[in-house]
Amino acid sequence: MNLRPTVDFLLYDWLKVERLPCRARFADHSRETFDAVLDTCERIAREKYAPFNRLVDTQEPQFDGEKVILPQATHDAYKAYAESGMLSAAQDYEIGGMQLPYTVEAAANAFFAMASVSIGSGMLTSGNANLLMVHGSEMQKKVFAAHEFSGRFSGTMCLSEPQAGSSLSDVMTRATPDGADFEADPLGARYRLRGHKMWISSGEHELSENIIHLVLAKIPDANGQLVPGVKGISLFIVPKKLVDTEGRLTGERNDVALAGLNHKCGWRGTTNTLLNFGEGKYPVRGQGGGWDGTGAIGYLVGQPGDGLKCMFHMMNEARIGVGMAATMLGMAGYHASLDYAKNRPQGRPSGAGGKDASRPQVRIIEHADIKRMLLAQKAYCEGALALALYCARLVDEQHPGNAADADVARLLLEVLTPIAKSFPSEWCLEANSLAIQIHGGYGYTRDFPVEQYWRDNRLNMIHEGTHGIQAMDLLGRKVLMDNGRGLQLLGERMQATATQAQAQAAWGAEADALRDALGQVVQATQQAWAGAEPAQALANAVPYLQAFGHTVIAWIWLDVAASLGDEPSPAAQGRRAACRYFYRYELPKIGAWLSVVASRDPTCAELPEEAF
Ligand SMILES: Cc1cc2nc3c(=O)[nH]c(=O)nc-3n(C[C@H](O)[C@H](O)[C@H](O)COP(=O)(O)OP(=O)(O)OC[C@H]3O[C@@H](n4cnc5c(N)ncnc54)[C@H](O)[C@@H]3O)c2cc1C
After folding, report:
1. CA 463 to centroid of ligand 1, rounded, Å
2. Residues whose CB falls within 8 Å of the CB of residue 84, separated by 6 or more in sequence, listed in order
3. What's the mean pLDDT in 429-454?
């Protein structure tokens, strides 16, 4: 089974991306150029990624004491991806980009995520460079971002520390000015960093000439104390190897040392590291090194204290990317289990007189329960892919255009980002579990790929803001910001879809159900907050996230289904069935989720520890 028809349908028939070239930024593009990008990525994913997905799972990164060793296939995949131009696809022509709409870039990247999610880590490199294009100085763009876009350097995102994961205000990495002339460095105000960064993906390897770490750290106040809270956090570029103002390596190794590799449940093709900054393993620029010495050299990005604000640029991008990865892992499991179900004979149908053992067995796809599990996967994964591309389209709509439309797109994206990340992380993982179930015992072995998809996908509810943190972001911030304008705009889009669907007799019940679900979400939002302390309102934030996510996917599916008209093809029939499945089997769950939100049910929050 091939992903391309689904991508083509969503891009062209549903989202009409071929209309984007009427915006000045995309004027040189057309369906032909979009198709050429999709063709290239599909081919590279098929040739350089998919065949090695199991290999990178079994041959984990190894540290030989000096270097991290990765399979040759990972080097080949990295090279092919960089050469495709995808690292800078959305960037301006002047810096070698293609000015490709982000919607098309995201769709093209879906092929890689489905083929082998962990062999490539391009998302971090382009996210890192994209951040520098917005918040970096001209010199930082030229010296660091440009070489990341070409693939010569790769990038990381260094937020987490052993004691500071969800709570980034507690980071303890310190940055102190490097000498009296620290502000005179052409690469940016120069600091010395000391501290530990945990869980850093692609933190050490030999895939690229250099690794550009973007590091959150605190600049101590005049008394040498770290400022509590996120306001004290600043952002620094810390290259593994130092460079000059032309981006050439100076031959000096910066003091960033690998303390150890993390051995993960899945996603094993990507190195994951504990890094020590400024421990003195690589004393740099000769002033002694060591914890009491000079530290790793880092260059300030933006203003002191603005670190987290700058980093959100990369984190928001990464959240949509994580959602897309979760979606495509779900989709990979769906395709694998569909193929298996079409070929596995097992059991016989029950007729009026019971089962006739003399008749041949049927293939399991003929059993209603297997069809249920396939349709659930399709509804979760294709719905999530449609949402991811819808969000990507909102990114493109922020290119003027007119400022009011751009602002609407921005607000909608703010509200939808926690869903684009969390819905697939939870429900496309569930899809992977169903794919294992369809395989029966074989699904529980390493002879079939579905167990790896599940293990790889299990990460997505954890990184880039855990499920719980996303939920609190949604209920505690996103639906409240600008006096609830984001939620209101989303509601308007849902109402418009319901009106359009209502005009077709086939979708009247679903249109009513969507309006009802939206009403329940809005009401529960108000009730959760009515006169409540934040701790009470947010105690059931995860059920709120689940209900919100299901309402969003129900809206997306109705919009997709209504766009099909009377199209008789099997693909359209499948999409209509996935929509109906979601409304009949999934959407009714929101009642239970929202009831504990609206009543601020204290069952969990108030249980004393001793009672567990
Ligand atoms: C494979 C992998 C790759 C990663 N890559 C990177 C990377 O490249 N760069 C990077 O900086 N980080 C990375 N991370 C780190 C990741 O973002 C953190 O693991 C995540 O933010 C959670 O932090 P933690 O592990 O310390 O868990 P904790 O923050 O300790 O959370 C533990 C549990 O407590 C819950 N919890 C925490 N605080 C609250 C609260 N206030 N209210 C309610 N519940 C709460 C959480 O939801 C979670 O369920 C990666 C992690 C993994 C596993």
Report:
1. 6
2. 40, 41, 44
3. 98
Beta strand extents in 288-401 (DSSP E only):
296-301
Cα gap 85→88, rounded to integer Å? 6
Amino acid at residue number 149: F
Cross-strand partners of 301: 235
Q: According to the model, what pLDDT value does residue 174 have?
A: 97
Q: Which residues line ligand 1 (CB under 6 A)?
A: 157-160, 165-166, 199-201, 264, 267, 272, 459, 462-464, 466, 468-469
* Cα of 227 from ligand 1 centre, angstroms: 22
Element (H, E) at 492: helix 481-502
Residue range 231-281, pLDDT digits in tens: 899 999 999 999 999 999 999 999 999 999 999 999 999 999 999 999 999
Of 418, 426, 424, which Cα lies nearest the Cα of 319? 418
464 assigned to active site? yes
pLDDT tens digits, one per residue of 140-176: 999 999 999 999 999 999 999 999 999 999 999 999 9
Q: Torsions phi, psi of 545, nearest 5?
A: -60, -40
- Asked whether residue 288 carries a pLDDT value surpassing 70, the answer given is no
CB 339 within 8 A of CB 466: no
Cβ–Cβ under 8 Å, residues 202 and 270: yes
pLDDT tens, residue by residue, 341-376: 999 999 998 888 888 899 999 999 999 999 999 999
What's the whole-model pTM score?
0.97
The residue contributing the CA closest to ligand 1 atom 22 is: 165
Residue 291 has pLDDT above 50, yes or no: no
Task: Say which DSSP state 254 is in.
Answer: P
- Catalytic residue of the set 42, 397, 464, 510: 464
Q: Which of the listed residues 172, 466, 604 should we mutate to test ligand 1's pocket, taking the one with most ligand atoms within 8 A of CB?
A: 466
Quick one: angle between helices 403-438 and 541-563, nearest 10?
100
Residue nearest to atom 2 of ligand 1 (CA): 199
* 587-598 confidence digits (pLDDT tens): 999 999 999 999
Residue 89, φ and ψ in degrees, nearest 5: -55, -40
Closest-lying ligand 1 atom to the alpha carbon of residue 466: 47
Each residue of 78-101: pLDDT tens digit? 999 999 999 999 999 999 999 999
Distance between Cα 471 and ligand 1 center (Å): 14
Ligand 1 centroid to Cα of residue 181, in Å, is 37
Per DSSP, what are the bridge partners of residue 239?
A: 212
